[in-house]
Amino acid sequence: MLCETSVQRVNHKEVLVPLSEDELRILSEIEDHLYESDPELAREVAETTVYTHAFRNLKWSTFGFIVGAGLMVIMLSVHYGFAFMGFLLMLGSLLWFERNLRRLGRVGLEQMTSTMRGGGGLRDVVGGAGVKMRDRFNRPGEPPSE
């Protein structure tokens, strides 16, 4: 979790400067103290990125859009005014989605999708069933697949 460099501005450019041993020791002590005093906060800080809030809002806006579409379809048979409320919910959710997508940006979107793809994600839920199946059908003497 420790960062071994700091960013400093030199002639309007950002330059990475390595931290001294004292600075690394102090950061290590602060980190250890944080883990001892509040392990829940330390876990939350370790798991949270800059883009977590915007990505969470993307999920909620998608949910709102789906609820609005369902409300619109169901309420068309009751009254068009209620269906219009569903349309407004869809429109608001779409605008909220676009706003948070802009906040997330290309880098944040790539970071979030790479953590879902490479960080386990679905593989953790399924438990590597594909690899287990391939290993089961390997002939004796063949190396297991990776």
How does this model look, in words?
This protein has helices spanning 21-37, 39-47, 52-75, 80-118, 122-126, 129-137; strands spanning 5-10, 13-18. With 146 residues, the chain is mostly helical. It has two domains: 5-47, no CATH class; 52-121. A two-stranded antiparallel ribbon has the order 1-2. A hairpin with a 2-residue loop joins strand 1 (5-10) and strand 2. The radius of gyration is 24 Å and the shape is extended. The mean pLDDT is 77.
Total domains: 2
Could you tell me how far the N terminus lies from the C terminus, measured between alpha carbons in angstroms?
A: 29 Å
Number of E-state strands: 2
Tell me the number of helical segments per DSSP (H or I, 4 or more residues long). 6
Average pLDDT taken over every residue: 77
Could you give a short account of the major beta sheet? Answer: 2 strands, antiparallel
Percent of residues in β-strands = 5-15%
Chain-wise SSE layout:
Elements: E1 5-10, E2 13-18, H1 21-37, H2 39-47, H3 52-75, H4 80-118, H5 122-126, H6 129-137
Antiparallel strand pairs: 1-2
Helix pairs in contact: 1-2, 3-4
What is the gist of this entry?
This protein has 146 residues and is mainly α.
